[in-house]
Amino acid sequence: MDTRRLRRLLIALALAAPWHPTDAGRLRVLVQTAPLAGFEFHEGSRLWPQLQVGDVLELKREPANRHDTRAIAVRWRGEMLGYLPRAENDAVSEAMDRGVTAEARIAALRDERDPWRRVQVEVFLVMPRTQ
Question: pTM for this one?
Answer without folding.
Answer: 0.79
